[in-house]
């Protein structure tokens, strides 16, 4: 199956790399090569923008934020999350909105902005609670830990 997608996408992926495919969106993840992953997320972002796939664009921005966060590039991560959040709100993606807010909170706390992190996490919690998302419990526990 990966061989099929490699030929369709025109990419070479060695066997130890992990590839995720969704309609019109390619996201690449390999913890040992985050920078390469960022390149692929950037390509996915460009494709999503070119074809007008706002959901894909938001997903790519969120993935870029996650990669930056993993690298410790927290300000850059937050910037990507903010862009993704804007798109999630525009298209009505409540789950995506909650994910962006919680991811921003995690990066913010690592930057020493605990009060902002708690505020963002509380917003994520409210969204997850409204949509009956099981992540609400995880976010709630994280808020409690940060408030101690």
What can you tell me about this protein's structure?
- With 148 residues, the chain is mainly α.
- The protein has 2 domains: 1-92, Serine Threonine Protein Phosphatase 5, Tetratricopeptide repeat, CATH 1.25.40; 93-148, no CATH class.
- 73% of the residues lie in helices and 7% in strands.
- A two-stranded antiparallel ribbon has the order 1-2.
- Helix 5 (94-110) runs antiparallel to helix 6 (114-130).
- Residues 1-30 have low confidence and may be disordered.
Structural features:
148 residues; mainly alpha; 7 helices; 2 strands; disordered N terminus
Helical segment count: 7
CATH topological fold name of the largest domain: Serine Threonine Protein Phosphatase 5, Tetratricopeptide repeat
The top level CATH class name of the largest domain: Mainly Alpha
Total strands: 2
Question: Total domains, how many?
Answer: 2
Sheet with the most strands, sense and barrel status:
2 strands, antiparallel
Under the CATH scheme, the architecture of the largest domain is Alpha Horseshoe
Taking the alpha carbons of the first and last residues, their distance comes to 48 Å
Residue-averaged pLDDT, rounded? 83
Structural class: mainly alpha
Radius of gyration: 16 Å
Low-confidence stretches: 1-30
């Amino acid at each position: 199956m990966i061989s099929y997608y490699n030929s369709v996408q025109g990419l070479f992926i060695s066997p130890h790399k992990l590839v995720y495919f969704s309609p019109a969106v390619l996201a690449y993840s390999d913890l040992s090569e985050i920078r390469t992953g960022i390149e692929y997320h950037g390509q996915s972002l460009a494709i999503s923008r070119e074809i007008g796939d706002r959901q894909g664009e938001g997903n790519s921005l969120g993935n870029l934020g996650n990669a930056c966060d993993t690298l410790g590039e927290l300000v850059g991560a937050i910037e990507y999350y903010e862009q993704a959040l804007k798109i999630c709100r525009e298209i009505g993606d409540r789950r995506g909105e909650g994910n962006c807010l919680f991811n921003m909170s995690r990066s913010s706390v690592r930057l020493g902005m605990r009060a902002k992190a708690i505020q963002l996490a509380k917003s994520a919690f409210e969204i997850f609670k409204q949509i009956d998302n099981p992540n609400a419990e995880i976010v709630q526990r994280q808020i409690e830990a940060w408030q101690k």
